[in-house]
Specification:
Helix content of chain B: 25-40%
Radius of gyration of chain A: 22 Å
Number of helices of chain B: 9
Order of helices and strands of chain B: EEEHEEHEHHHEHEHEEHH
CATH architecture of chain A: Orthogonal Bundle
Largest sheet of chain B: 6 strands, mixed
Number of helices of chain A: 9
Order of helices and strands of chain A: HHHHHHHHH
Strand content of chain A: under 5%
Largest interface: A-B, 21 and 31 residues
Number of strands of chain B: 10
Distance between the termini of chain A: 61 Å
CATH class of chain A: Mainly Alpha
Distance between the termini of chain B: 31 Å
CATH superfamily of chain A: MetI-like
Radius of gyration of chain B: 18 Å
Helix content of chain A: over 70%
Oligomer: heterodimer
Bound molecules: adenosine-5'-diphosphate, magnesium ion
Shape of chain B: globular
């Protein structure tokens, strides 16, 4: 079978390309919302942890955060996904996409937390002291002085975490979600031709990742241009 | 204005301040000198509770402040300006925003009123054209003058200086000291930790010598430098003068 026949069979017949397009849509939706959840969780954990490290307050929340970080970073994301799907949501009827968003969001939050905590801790203590000496309280000092600087420092690393997460969602098929990877696999199982569908899947991931990487690059250049002012 | 009694500060086991008594009157300019590690910064930082005393009492305008909760300390700190060795300007904000941030966020002034105040302060510290600049664009001496302006924006009743010129290149020390002198002449109550003996002689109403977490001698500058009694102080002065 020539390339064009094979192409037609894998993508054109029965509108099989739709598996890829719909799969990509699902992948992007899961990634987007998991990133949002991960950011919220990550910032929360980072602020609790750095508050504990700097002021020795919030000991109990800090212990909980440390447990969360250890468990999430010490186990494979697929196992976390399966546990959340079969154990935690096992007897509840929720959409699989929702479960995936929760699982990948919780997973990503741990990595975001460590990135953001590093950003906060890299800000000189003198900044905190200057804010407090003016009479600003801890929350105001964090909000107006520490976090703006910390976020600027870690923005590129956070964007990279989004890219990593996009690729990690390719294991969503383990709970029978029809994401991009699974879409290609479905075509393969229909046509019994592994080469083209999987190549197409890889190319689509690659293009999306390259686009996102370009965006991060532009952002980084903008930020460092600001530094030279 | 500030009354310190039996102030002791320990970090874990190490005693850094030993049972210090001190009294600072309104309008006084108290200069603290002493060898490095003697507890000068810790003493200064206890005055605005950046460090919590282990024991002893500090009264500010008659109010006992050592037992206050965190939330109650913030209004006290608003009344005490602090200037740091390393300036600690906010690098992500313009000079104008550095100066106006605290009074505006604390609801003491509108942004408009604060901007006007910032303009006056920039005139006062001799940097009227720097409002839109960022800290990274300033020299060390200029940064410290802005840090002083930032503290003054809160209309503090007392200003605490922790070695304000120690991080500066020699040619920039003068501009900061002359601003501080100007502030002193305007009647500001000041507590200054410094190694600038010339400033102490000229500006201080009283000089304290600290060593090993204690105040070993205190006197008006003429007697302090002219006729030092404590042998540790004599030795110290012979090294620095
Ligand atoms: N946060 C801290 N934790 C532990 N030890 C400290 C801390 N701050 C200061 N010290 C110790 O207290 C002593 C006095 O320090 P400091 O007040 O900075 O002295 P000075 O300002 O006179 O040089 C030093 O021995 C220093 O190591
Ligand atoms: Mg010091």
């Amino acid at each position: 079978m020539g390339f064009s026949d094979s192409f037609r069979q894998n993508f054109i017949e029965d509108d099989r390309w739709k598996y890829l397009v719909n799969g990509l849509k699902t992948t992007l939706i899961i990634t987007l919302f998991a990133v949002l959840l991960g950011m919220v969780l990550g910032f929360l954990v980072a602020i609790i942890r750095s508050t504990y490290l700097r002021t020795k307050k919030l000991l109990i929340p800090d212990l909980i955060c440390r447990l969360y970080l250890t468990v999430i970073r010490g186990t494979p994301v697929v196992v976390q996904l399966l546990i959340i799907y079969f154990v935690i949501f096992g007897s509840v009827d929720v959409s699989k996409t929702f479960v995936a968003i929760i699982a990948f969001g919780i997973n990503s939050g741990a990595y975001v937390a460590e990135i953001v905590r590093g950003g906060i801790m890299s800000i000189d203590v003198g900044q905190l002291e200057a804010g407090r000496s003016l009479g600003l309280n801890y929350r105001q000092t964090m909000m107006y002085i520490i976090m703006p600087q910390a976020i600027k420092n870690v923005l590129p690393a956070l964007c990279n975490e989004c890219i990593v997460l996009l690729k990690e969602t390719s294991v969503a098929g383990y709970i029978a979600i029809e994401d991009l990877t699974r879409g290609g696999d479905i075509i393969r199982s229909i046509t019994f031709a592994p080469f083209l569908p999987l190549l197409a899947v890889a190319l689509i991931y690659l293009v999306v990742v390259i686009l996102l990487t370009k965006l991060v690059g532009i952002l980084e250049r903008r930020l460092s241009a600001n530094d030279r002012r | 204005m500030i009354d310190v009694k039996g102030l002791t500060k320990k970090f874990n086991r190490t005693v850094v301040l030993r049972n210090i008594d001190a009294h600072i009157e309104k309008g006084e300019k108290v200069v603290i000198i002493g060898p490095s590690g003697s507890g000068k910064s810790t003493f200064l930082r206890c005055l605005n509770l950046m460090e919590r005393p282990t024991s002893g009492s500090i009264r500010f305008d008659g109010q006992e402040i050592t037992g206050l909760r965190e939330r109650e300390i913030d209004p006290i700190r608003q009344r005490m300006g602090m200037v740091f060795q390393h300036f600690n300007l906010f690098p992500h904000l313009t000079i104008q925003r550095n100066i106006t941030l605290a009074p505006v966020k604390l609801g003491l002034m509108t942004q408009e009123a604060a901007d006007k105040k910032a303009k006056e302060l920039l005139e006062r510290v001799g940097l009227p054209d720097k409002a839109k600049a960022y800290p990274a664009q300033l020299s060390g001496g200029q940064k410290q003058r802005i840090a002083i302006a930032r503290a003054l924006a809160m209309n503090p009743e007392v200003m605490l200086f922790d070695e304000p010129t120690s991080a500066l290149d020699p040619e920039m020390v003068g501009e900061v000291l002359s601003l501080m002198k100007q502030l002193a002449d305007d009647g500001m109550t000041m507590v200054v930790v410094t190694h600038e003996m010339g400033f102490a002689k000229e500006v201080a109403s009283r000089v304290l010598f600290m060593a090993d977490g204690q105040i070993l001698e205190e006197n008006a500058p003429r007697q302090f430098f002219g006729n030092p009694k404590n042998p540790r102080l004599r030795e110290f002065l012979s090294k620095v003068l």
